[in-house]
Design the sequence.
């Protein structure tokens, strides 16, 4: 019955399709139900394969014969050859190139990838006309880099007498990554992800070998040993760092091995520290993760990648990861680390990669669905299946309005009160009524329906009518549905479905529609 | 959409500039009257500090002067009136849009 009810909706949005700048409605199909979408920056999501990825639109392949299927199209420096579906290097000295001209256009942004399939000695990198792009690599693996071109030629450049072979050299232009909506699969099931602006205050979120990551030790312990590009990270490429903490038999509080990253930040505000970690073998390790509050937290690192996140009021301006003789640590802890983030938020938002500078992802904005034909002012139902990103004490409002005017609107909100969901009608800038429902957990998905009709209003949550209002006016001129139109109270959260009905559904229909 | 960088004397000056782009609604909420993303950067670490094994600061880092603020103006083509003189264009910006 619920499926049939979804077909009855005049506007239906599910996490299925989007374009650059719009979230496409399932109903109607003529575009009148589509949301306009903007952000103004790139952003990451967890894709259907469970990998962290930058949402982006890529061009077709710009490298000719990048899989080396035939011996053509490449200019070969001394020692380079093409055979058996790969480029083979048996070079001497430095800066020996395998190259193609006119691959890049200056000023455009690209995603580059190549694979070292065999390795004997030396090192190799991808460059633009000799200008470093990928950094030197000296191990079997696939290497991905994003950059903005300043030269036009693509060089695969061997140095230190590189001997090895490479394959699958790929260059694709990023034609858009700033206004693409995100369908996120963090929960295993796709949902629209709408997040606030946030800044990753860590300058090297993936390169743990950088000096911005302080490596210290005390007592018998060794400083952490770092190996870059050691394991496949949550983005699917070989770019996670191996970190080995060794206490050398130390068992006291004086014996510790520690990674530390300092930030410039404001004491007293809430920050969230997060990092992906996994064990490099079958062992499970206890180690200490200290967010910016300075409090010690023992976390269990297993052979599976997990994003650890801790929120706290800042007091110490640094994040630390360590083993210590007095903190349940094993003697040798061998883990991989990737994707560290510190942000001024009370919860962890999607990963923002950094490489040399802190970086900001701007806020998602989704508005302007519908029109007066699709939205009935005198009666109807606003239905959603949504989850909050956090129970963070803010108001997050969305709903139907007269031309995005908050004073004339039918709204649902996550309230500033803990775990509260509210349904309200505002007319001429005043509330006709408010129906409140206190959920057990607003971060869990709920199916919510708000029925509106003159003197007949009801809020249904997860199959139950949780509140009614038997007096109140409706709004004239309803014509717009949006997530982000209420100024400082924009809706941030996750949405699996959103529907608008032009009639007040029956209790049986509302129960069916909202039952989990 | 433009991305501009500014340096103000202090946070109070930055806040007073930003305040003009918000109205207060009847619930007391700040409602933006211009679509802009204000990125409060405060100061950048120019010279790293020194820390002991416990992470306690021994030598304080050297920070940039003033109060750094980046702004993305979604609907403007240049800085609004009263902001232009605070624009900066660092050679090696330590913040970027992702």
Sequence:
């Amino acid at each position: 019955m619920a499926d049939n009810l979804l077909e009855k909706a005049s506007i239906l949005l599910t996490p299925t399709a989007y374009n650059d700048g719009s979230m496409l409605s399932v109903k109607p199909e003529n575009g009148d139900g589509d949301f306009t979408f903007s952000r103004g920056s790139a952003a990451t999501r967890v894709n259907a394969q469970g990998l962290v990825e930058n949402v982006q639109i890529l061009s077709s392949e710009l490298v000719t014969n990048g899989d080396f299927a035939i011996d053509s199209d490449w200019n070969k420096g001394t020692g380079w050859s093409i055979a058996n579906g790969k480029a083979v290097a048996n070079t001497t000295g430095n800066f020996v190139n395998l190259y193609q001209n006119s691959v890049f256009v200056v000023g455009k942004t690209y995603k580059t990838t190549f694979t070292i399939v065999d390795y004997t000695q030396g090192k190799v990198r991808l460059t633009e006309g000799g200008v470093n792009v990928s950094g030197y690599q000296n191990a079997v693996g696939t290497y991905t880099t994003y950059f903005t071109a300043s030269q036009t030629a693509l060089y695969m450049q061997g140095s230190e007498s590189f001997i090895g072979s490479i394959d699958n050299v790929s260059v694709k232009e990023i034609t858009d990554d700033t206004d693409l909506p995100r369908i996120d699969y963090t929960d295993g099931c796709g949902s629209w992800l709408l997040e606030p602006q946030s800044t990753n205050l860590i300058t090297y979120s993936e390169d743990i070998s950088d000096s911005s990551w302080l490596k210290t030790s005390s007592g018998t312990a060794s400083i952490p040993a770092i190996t870059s590009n050691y394991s496949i990270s949550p983005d699917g490429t070989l770019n996670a760092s191996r970190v080995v903490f060794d206490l050398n038999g130390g068992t006291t509080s004086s014996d510790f091995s520690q990674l530390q990253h300092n930030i410039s930040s404001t004491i007293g505000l809430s920050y969230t520290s997060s990092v992906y970690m996994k064990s490099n073998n079958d062992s499970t390790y206890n180690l200490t993760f200290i967010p910016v509050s300075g409090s010690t937290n023992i976390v269990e690192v297993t052979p599976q990648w997990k994003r650890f996140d801790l929120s706290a009021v800042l007091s110490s301006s640094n994040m630390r990861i360590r083993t210590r003789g007095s903190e349940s640590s094993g003697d040798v802890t061998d883990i991989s680390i990737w994707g560290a983030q510190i942000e001024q938020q009370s919860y962890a938002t999607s990963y923002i990669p950094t490489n040399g500078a802190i970086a900001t992802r701007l806020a998602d904005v989704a508005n302007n669905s519908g029109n007066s034909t699709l939205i009935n002012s005198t009666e109807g139902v606003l239905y959603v299946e949504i989850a909050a990103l956090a129970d963070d004490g803010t108001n997050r409002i969305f709903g139907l309005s007269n031309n995005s005017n908050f004073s004339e609107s039918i709204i649902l909100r996550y309230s500033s009160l803990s775990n509260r969901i509210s349904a309200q009608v505002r007319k001429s800038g005043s509330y006709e009524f408010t129906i409140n429902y206190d959920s057990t957990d607003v971060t869990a998905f709920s199916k919510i329906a708000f029925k509106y009709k003159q003197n007949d209003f009801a809020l249904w949550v997860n199959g139950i009518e949780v509140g009614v209002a038997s007096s109140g006016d409706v709004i004239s001129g309803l014509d717009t549905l949006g997530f982000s139109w209420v100024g400082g109270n924009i809706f941030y959260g996750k949405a699996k479905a959103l529907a608008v009905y032009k009639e007040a559904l029956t209790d049986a229909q509302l129960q069916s529609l909202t039952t989990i | 959409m433009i991305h501009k960088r500014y340096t103000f004397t202090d946070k109070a000056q930055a806040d007073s500039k930003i305040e003009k782009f918000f109205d207060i609604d009847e619930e007391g909420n700040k409602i933006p009257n211009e679509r802009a993303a204000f990125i409060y950067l405060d100061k950048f670490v120019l010279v790293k500090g020194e820390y002991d094994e416990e992470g306690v600061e021994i030598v304080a880092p050297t920070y940039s002067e003033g109060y750094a603020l980046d702004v993305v103006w979604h609907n403007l083509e240049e800085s609004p009136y009263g902001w232009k003189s605070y624009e900066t264009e660092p050679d090696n910006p330590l913040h970027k849009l992702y």
User: Anything to note?
Assistant: Chain B touches chain A through 32 residues (CB under 8 Å). The beta strands of chain B are 2-8, 22-24, 30-32, 36-42, 45-47, 50-51, 57-59, 62-63, 67-73, 95-97. Chain B has a mean pLDDT of 87.
